[in-house]
Amino acid sequence: MNSVRAAALAVFSFAVFLSSLPACAHSTLEVAQATIGAGYKGVVRVPHGCAGEATHTVRVSIPDEIANVKPMPKPGWTLTTKSGPYATPFNNHGKMMNEGVKEIVWSGGALPDAHYDEFVFTGTIIPGAKAGTVYVPVVQECANGAEKWVETPSAHDAQARLKYPAPPLVLVQSTQPHGQAHSTAKTYSVGALRIEAPWTRATPKGAQVGGGYLKITNAGKESDRLVGGSLPIAGRLEVHEMATVDGVMRMRELPKGLEIKPGETVELKPGGYHIMFMQLKEPLVAGKPLKGTLVFEKAGTIEVEYSVAPIGARDMPAAGGGHSHH
Q1: Whether 39 and 152 share a structural domain
Q2: Residues with Cβ < 8 Å from 126, sequence gap 6 or more?
Q3: How many CA within 13 A on the CB side of residue 7?
Q4: What 8-state DSSP symbol labels residue 157?
């Protein structure tokens, strides 16, 4: 029974880890968390059409909490918007705005069922918005039907499984004092290698895998390889890559590690090269740094500290640390 439960948790954890990648069954937001009072870049991911048919129109409804919306044009598509009054007037750099974009429509294109694409807009989460989850309904229209990702949980059954869920967006309060500049990201040196800004993402309770990200620059004359490392709360570390094969995003371990050639900088980031923390013994918590090690084939072992961003983050946390050399 314990082995079955562990296997189930592993599958769940892996699904959470992949939630930020394009291979999803329904329309989603690439970044599913935004800070109240700050700018937000919404990337709507559309992974398939309508029962095999190509998508020719994508409609995105903007919730009241997002103002000052500007959509990005797409070559081959006609872009239109519909405006309406804001539920709460929005002060945009001293100018009071009472209305703005409430719906974005990209039409006249052709996104085959076998292909994936993204539709982008920017906006601002209005100051004074309540922390919590809002929803960004998306409708795909095809020649003989539509996929309507518009369902939201009811207040009486927030855990209900929805067949056509609207993409959720979690609004959080800023943890950075007003006017405070972003801290300098931590950097480390070992041999001819420079390691910059190690970071990871928080994981839900029960998750057994997590991802590690950073930049590595080789200032030497010989290639080196990142071959592993350690984390006290993980059973082991592996070096992985993401690649698109036949239109499908796949992940695989690099058994010989990741090569860093002389003069090159290699970035480990979501959707590309990354470190996998396997067999996690406890969740990774946003804002709670983690100390671990990285192991290089020639340069050897170095201790680093990972900043921990919220679940689903695409970039490292704003607050970093100092500067250190080893």
Answers
A1: yes
A2: 36, 37, 65, 66, 67, 86, 88, 90
A3: 4
A4: B
3-state SS track over 106-154: EEEEEECCCCCEEEEEEEEECCCCCCEEEECCEEEEECCEEEEECECCE
Is the domain of 161 the same as that of 36?
yes
Spatial distance between the Cα atoms of 161 and 237, rounded to a whole number of angstroms = 34
- Find out whether 309 and 199 touch, Cβ atoms under 8 Å: yes
pTM here is 0.51
Report the CATH number at residue 234: 2.60.40.1890
21 within some domain: no
Alpha carbon of residue 228 to chain centroid? 24
pLDDT 10s digits, 27-71: 999 988 988 888 899 999 999 889 899 999 999 999 999 999 999
Q: How far is CA 145 from CA 141, 150, 289, in A?
A: 6, 15, 48
Containing structural domain, residue 292: 187-309
* Residue that has been written with the tokens 């044009």 in this structure: 73
Determine phi and psi for 282, rounding to 5 degrees. Answer: -155, 160
Question: Which residue, chain included where needed, has tokens 């036949």?
Answer: 246
Tens of pLDDT, residues 194-231: 999 999 999 888 889 999 999 999 999 999 999 999 99
At 129, phi and psi to the nearest 5? -65, 150
Instruction: Report the CATH number that the domain containing residue 38 is assigned in CATH.
Output: 2.60.40.2230
Q: ∠ CA(234), CA(236), CA(239), 5° rounding?
A: 120
